Target: DUF4440 domain-containing protein
Amino acid sequence: MKTKIKIFAILITILGSFNAIAQSEIEEEIKSLSTFKWQWMADKDIDNLEKLFHEKSKFVHMSGSWKKERELEIIKTGSIWYKNAEVHDVAVEIFGDDTAVLWNRITLTAHVRGNDVENEFTVTEFYKMEGEDWKLLDLTFSSVRDTHKIEH
Model:
């Protein structure tokens, strides 16, 4: 009986290790995708952003909230030009195998209404796996102090 319990415990440990590795790989994939997203926003790369943003995605900014089409229009026209997002800290939580939440603490340099502005934000990003691709469901900017820390 003790041998069966030991074998079962070993199997549970091995399965847990595989799950941790899979979660870690998803976390890295989401972090990478978020990094690409910031660059695409800076480059006004509407084609890649169109593919990334879920059809029902929402965007919450200091000045309001809107859906995918308006966000893409804002980026394309440059009414907000996300020139640079300096990422200071990132945390990712995975829920099941198809949902991820990422928090970035950033300093955003943007061109808004004719002026370059710099703001500290924690940005929350929700992702959902659809088919073979991660889709951004929500991107919310929260204004924070530069001393704000993301709890890991």
Remarks:
- The domain at 2-143 is CATH 3.10.450.50 (Nuclear Transport Factor 2; Chain: A,).
- Residues 2-43 form the longest helix (42 residues).
- DSSP finds three helices and six strands in the chain.
